[in-house]
Amino acid sequence: MKTFSNHPQIEKLVNGDKVTLTELYKNLFPKVISYIYNNKGTRKDAEEVFHDALYQLVCRAKIKGVQINSSFHGYVFTVCKNLWLKQLNNRKKEVRNEGIFELKANEDETVKAILHQERWELFEEKMLLLSENCKALLKDFFNKVSYKVIVKKFNYASENTAFQRVFKCKKKLADLVKADSRYKDLS
């Protein structure tokens, strides 16, 4: 089976290499457990997220390939983190009734999660094209740093100036994302 990847561990994972799987469970899974524990999750949640991430990675590699621009472990961890954050967000929206059990369409969820991950990768890729100032400014903005702190950190004249600069950087990022040929497919 031919896959498209720039990383040899993906090929091994797709082919079911037990050494690669064992190495992932030994070296990466504990970090995933720790992250999920620290973010309102359980070991069972961590297992599900880890399995889903590996499954998604294999599916993407088989269908259209995966390009990794960081370490393999860092990439898989980011996929796990994104899946967990999405799951937490979905939990906020759910109405729970313990007496009712509903089966979810697993394939549909996988497709949505893959799409979400591809959007995230496009976003990260375009962030790298921004100026260092815009990258730092948007990082603070996305981390919900107050405008008052941003004014001091970047030596802006006022909060209005900081607001305008954030707006311009966000617009530049949006323009870069929308100009990419993958944007329409991911919308």
Largest sheet: none
By secondary-structure content and strand pairing, the structural class works out as mainly alpha
DSSP helical segment count: 10
Distance between termini?
A: 29 Å
Number of strands: 0
- Average predicted confidence as pLDDT: 81
**What's the helical proportion of residues?**
over 70%
Series of secondary-structure elements, N-terminal to C-terminal: HHHHHHHHHH
Shape: globular
Beta content:
under 5%
What does this structure look like?
The chain has 187 residues and is mainly alpha-helical. It is built from ten helices and no strands. It is globular and about 60 Å long.
Short summary of the structure?
The protein is mainly alpha-helical and 187 residues long. The protein contains ten helices and no strands. α3 runs parallel beside α5.
